């Protein structure tokens, strides 16, 4: 009888753990589908603007840069979905490489600024005290982290508010 009770308790705990895991995955997929819409809308919006401004080389370059940044962000979100299975299986690997701080900041700015502007927010970027422009690390992961943090800042800052992205060399 005691053995059966222990077995039933273990089964109940396993069921609860499975339900928590299932709920977490459902929430993750729900958030991902929402997050994927933002860069996709940017790609479509800037593509439409590009068609209207095809005879203006400066606008074409500007919109192309924003489409590229949004496309890269969309790709990184899709990779996030794939990364979940790698994390769960313990096979996550960082891709170390050289990149510039300026490229990283520009990429983040190209994604976040339109999001902030759509909510009538001011997005401020400030980089000070940097001694080394060239960095070594996983640019994609750093980009993902910064975009996730700043996307949440846009989402949870009131309309008309201010969002600051500051990088300070120490």
SSE map:
Blueprint: H1 2-52, H2 57-89, E1 97-100, H3 101-118, E2 122-128, E3 134-137, H4 139-156, E4 162-168
Parallel strand pairs: 2-4
Antiparallel strand pairs: 1-3
Helix pairs in contact: 1-2, 2-3, 3-4
Defining traits:
about 170 residues, alpha+beta, two-stranded antiparallel sheet, about 15% strand
Largest sheet: 2 strands, antiparallel
- The percentage of residues in β strands lies in 5-15%
The rough form would be described as: elongated
Q: Mean pLDDT, as a whole number? A: 89
Strand order of the largest sheet: 1-3
Order of helices and strands: HHEHEEHE
Radius of gyration: 21 Å
Short account of what is shown:
The protein is of the alpha+beta class.
